[in-house]
Amino acid sequence: MTSPDPVAAAVSALIAAIREQVLAEMAAAAPPKPSPAPDQAEGPLLLTLTEARQQLRVSKATLDRLLRQGRIARVRIGSRAFVAATEIERFIAEASAD
């Protein structure tokens, strides 16, 4: 039986150390991917009034009335109006409880 070649063993150890270092640096350089909260559904946080109407499957007049009555809250950003997705979910849950 022959003894292992010390040069080959040193080269193998050096390659393994370089591989570990490169993998560690790659893992540190990659930004972590944000994971969505388990209770948060996929999709936008704010819906346009048209999108809110489509989700609720109501007419423009009905959505306007619900907004005027304060049964659905409106979010204003500049001159634009939105409805929070959570507000739609709350309204549906409240309406289902009735």
TrEMBL record:
Task: List residues of the Helix-turn-helix domain.
Answer: 46-95
Q: Which Pfam families match?
A: HTH_17
Q: Which InterPro entries match?
A: HTH_17
List the protein's name: Helix-turn-helix domain-containing protein
Q: What's the source species for this entry?
A: [Mycobacterium] fortunisiensis
